[in-house]
Amino acid sequence: MIKVENLHKSFDGLKVLRGASFQVAKGEILALIGRSGYGKSVLLKHVAGLIRPDQGHVFIDGKDICHLKGKELEELRSRFGFVFQSGALFDSMTVFENIAFPLEEKTKLGDQEIREKVLSALDHVGLTGAENKYPAQISGGMMKRVALARALVRNPEIMLFDEPTTGLDPIIGHAILNLIDSSHEHFGFTGMLVTHEIPKVFEIVQKVALLHEGAILAIGSPEEMLSSKDPIVHQFITGSIEGPIQYH
User: Fold this and answer.
1) Strand arrangement of the beta sheet that strand 55-60 belongs to
2) pTM for this one?
3) C-alpha separations of 224 from 43, 76, 209, 234 in Å
4) Per residue in 6-32, pLDDT tens?
């Protein structure tokens, strides 16, 4: 369903992506792992059509999102849900209004239908009763749940998660990953998840890709990655200081 082919991207002469290629089959979730600040979020935004590459292609069901514009691009993007690292909630809106926003902006549903969908989404993420609170009145974990509910409220075919557990303690972070897992079972979306939650994330994904020096160094099932003999893969997954990856 998602096919990334020879993706290159530079910013101010700094090469971030250097020929990244991989595929995600329909119904799979792929975890994208790799060092911090080395292009994972940039790659995810290419898949969403938020950034155009210098070279290469991103195919969604055979359509190259990199070359779509206007209505065609909007129609393809309407099939996506995106959970940003920060949550990206509107501070001046209540939880209900935040989740309702994409329905009001992108659909022709009536007020009652919108209300039913929002309350259903809140129930799914375990936040029934929180609809009238503002982002400043809820915890970081609750904010992540609201962001997930907003992304899921239109029942997207593709879900993209940019480090959804950033800033959370391990227990709440694991709870968010479990919620993503149950959402995947319920909605059946195809997904990509940028994360550092290793090895916990391996329990909820079907495929793992390691981005290293701008390209996909290794890709496979969680079991294949955990048993990999590649020294870079092994070092990154185990978190060892010793190995070919040099940290400064």
Assistant:
1) 14-24, 2-11, 55-60, 63-64
2) 0.92
3) 23, 33, 11, 11
4) 999 999 999 999 999 999 999 999 999
